[in-house]
Amino acid sequence: MRLARATDIPSLVESFGNVAGKLGFPNYVISRVTRSRSTSNRRTVLEMIGTHYPQEWVRHYQHRDYASTDPVHRAAFFHSAPYRWHDIAGLNKAERRLLDEAREAGLPAGLSIPVHQSDGSILLFNLSGPPRSVNDAINSRLAYLISAQFHFELHRLAQIPSRRAAHLLTPRQLECLTWVARGKTSAEIGEILGRSRYTVDYHIDLAMEALNIRSRTAAAVHATVLGIIKP
Prior knowledge:
By secondary structure, the chain is of the alpha+beta class. The chain folds into two domains: 2-159, Transcription factor LuxR-like, autoinducer-binding domain (Beta-Lactamase); 162-226, Winged helix-like DNA-binding domain superfamily/Winged helix DNA-binding domain (Arc Repressor Mutant, subunit A), CATH 1.10.10.
């Protein structure tokens, strides 16, 4: 399988997308899902690892802050096996509207595969395609297998540079990445650390350069997988 040949996270995501497309799932999102630690506001925090969703839907989703009301994420905390979006029970009005809007945006049906992590987070694979692909039992099993393979390869890639990365990143860079992993913006991190957002961006940029990763979110996910930060 091509996933085993991946040399970094972007190539791993690309290989996953190619295989998913052949299974009838042209759209996908791979993310790390966590619940905020605040007892007063149980927000769901998303860290995107890879995505191939319609851009208009992604912008709409982020603008409406749908992560915390998405029933697909809620269901992930209660399932250990793949589940179809239309099988999610107990939908409220807001959740039904979200799924209706997703269908209108070009995501007609979906299959989710949660992989629960030891730290309580979930590596969540959301695959979308026509109903015939989602309802095909063989497709579901194959989708589960490539998701498990992705998970394995993600850890393989993390183990290669883990010691080197721990020495390359400064305590401030690790601190900034930790807050990125918790879903904070540069401005919010600046307020927490008593620094300007520009100083925060500077430390994050240096961390991305050290890890050889172009996305701050991917850098935070990678650092989490390496075990050098603990969100």
